[in-house]
Every structure is written in structure tokens, then in C-alpha cells.
Design a protein that fits this description.
Number of strands: 10
Structural class: alpha/beta
Strand order of the largest sheet: 6-5-4-3-2-1-10-7
Low-confidence stretches: 205-212
Radius of gyration: 18 Å
Length: 277
């Protein structure tokens, strides 16, 4: 894999103003990144004007790789996701991206049954079919507190969906936080991976082997810069290499201990060691 595949998630800089977007663009390109992921909400800082946003990025030679969407709590999907989705996907397409990331249904119940799995998958499929009309692939992203969180949830979606409609976007730390094994999940679904979120994970003394699930520790306190936790990234990279993975390697770090730029540089230096020029 190559350094040109490195991307950085820029929402920690803020998503509400053009100034936040440009500061993120400036700081990550000074480090060496050529691409990034942002969230749906950041589109509205530019009033869904893709031409203006892209003109700013062009100043820095920076490219958008993906925009991140999420399925809201049940009953709110039309209002919060689908009602304006076509305009948002049009914006993404005009930005030149060819994929979007989709987080599962929020507000996970204590017990997930077949009904809940079907509900989540139905909304993922509905989203993905609309995205496909804009030439955008949909990458399903596991995230704590959602219906797409545990390994069983990942298996359900992957085994009950069209592989040409819904792809897999593993998040190494969120899989760990749910008590899963990111190496094995990536190994099992390597040929469906179209995007990756990379961050490290290390449990505190009061967090069990099931991560946040049976503790009161906020999950993001267990997330760390690459190389500062326990995830076997070299093995993950070997697996991705074995299937000739050519998609983004997107580093995401929600709560940097010093600053966004300092953590972006630390992560860049770590990941660079494994990639070709």
C-alpha cells in the first residue's frame, strides 16, 4: 500500500464554519496528507455549495475521500437522514468522492433481536440504493451505541446484503470497544473493505475485556494515537495488502491530548513506516 492512501478525519477541527474547514485543510497538508474525510454536517458550512468548498481545497491540493452519515434513532430517519439526502449526496458527488461512510442506527436497545437487525439493514439498504444513483458506494461503519456495533451485527449485515451494494468500513478502535477483534473482522471481510478508520485502543484499569460495554468508562477515553494502544496494525496491513486493498487508510482521532495537528503528525509518522512512497 502507498502513502497516497493516507487520509485524515477532520471533524475534530469543527464542522460549523468555513474557517474550521480551512484550518484543518491547512494543517493536515502541511504534515503531508493529500486527502481527508469529513461529516455530513460540514457540508452546511458551505451551504451545500460544492464548488466553493472544492475551490478552498484546491488551494491546498487536498481531496475529499468520503463524507460520514449516520442513521438516527428509530422513527427519526426520514427527518434526520432521508429528507435531504439527495441534495447531500449530490454535494458529495460534486466534490469528486466515490464513497460515503454510513454508521448504523443510533440508540441501541439492550436486547438486539431479528426485528432490530432487520430494521437497521433496511435503512442501510435504502440509503445505499439512493447513494448508488449518485455513483457513490456505501461503506458500513461499526460504532458503539448503534445497531451495527458487535461482531454479530457486522456478520448480520455482511451476510444479508448485496456485496456490490454495501461494503465494509471497519473502525479498528470501535470494534475493540465492543469487545471484538479488529484483526479477525478485517481478515474475514477483507474483500469487502472499501474504506478504513484507523485508531488505536487501550483499556484502562477499570475497563474489562469487553471494552466500554460493561463499564462506565467513556469509550473515547480508550482511543489512542496509532502505536499507543494494543491493536496489531502490522497484521492488519498485511491482510489488506494480501487483497490488494487500494482504498483510503483514514486515521481518526476524536480527542487528541495536545492538539489536532500534533496528533495528526504523530499518526502520519507511524503509518508512513508501513507504506511505500
Amino acid at each position: 500500500m502507498k502513502k497516497t492512501q493516507m487520509a485524515y478525519a477532520i471533524w475534530p477541527w469543527g464542522t460549523e464554519t468555513k474557517e474550521q474547514a480551512e484550518l484543518a485543510a491547512k494543517e493536515i497538508t502541511e504534515i503531508g496528507y493529500k486527502s481527508f474525510e469529513s461529516v455530513k454536517g460540514a457540508m452546511y458550512a458551505y451551504d451545500l455549495n460544492a464548488k466553493e468548498y472544492k475551490a478552498m481545497l484546491d488551494k491546498y491540493g487536498l481531496k475529499a475521500e468520503s463524507f460520514y452519515f449516520h442513521i438516527p434513532a428509530p422513527g427519526r430517519e426520514d427527518e434526520e437522514l432521508f429528507n435531504n439526502l439527495e441534495r447531500e449526496l449530490q454535494f458529495a458527488a460534486e466534490m469528486g468522492v466515490d464513497r460515503v461512510t454510513l454508521q448504523g442506527t443510533y440508540d441501541r436497545p439492550q436486547v438486539m433481536g431479528e426485528k432490530e437487525h432487520e430494521y437497521n439493514l433496511k435503512n442501510m439498504v435504502r440509503f445505499a440504493k439512493i447513494a448508488k444513483t449518485f455513483g457513490l458506494a456505501t461503506d458500513a461503519h461499526p460504532h458503539v451505541y448503534t445497531y451495527f456495533m458487535f461482531e454479530e451485527d457486522i456478520h448480520y449485515v455482511m451476510q444479508n446484503s448485496d456485496r456490490d451494494l454495501i461494503y465494509f468500513a471497519p473502525d479498528t478502535a470501535h470494534i475493540c470497544a465492543a469487545g471484538g477483534n479488529p484483526v479477525e473482522m478485517i481478515r474475514q471481510y477483507a474483500d469487502r473493505i472499501n474504506f478504513t478508520h484507523l485508531k488505536d485502543f487501550k483499556m484502562g484499569d477499570d475497563v474489562t475485556d469487553s471494552g466500554w460495554v460493561d463499564s462506565n468508562v467513556p469509550v473515547m477515553t480508550c482511543f489512542h494515537a496509532l502505536g499507543d494502544g494494543t491493536i496489531d496494525f502490522p497484521e492488519i496491513f498485511r491482510i489488506l495488502e494480501s487483497v490488494n486493498y487500494s482504498g483510503p487508510l483514514c486515521i481518526e482521532f476524536d480527542r487528541p491530548p495536545v492538539s489536532n495537528a500534533v496528533s495528526a503528525k504523530q499518526n502520519y509518522d507511524y503509518l508512513s513506516k508501513f507504506l511505500e512512497d
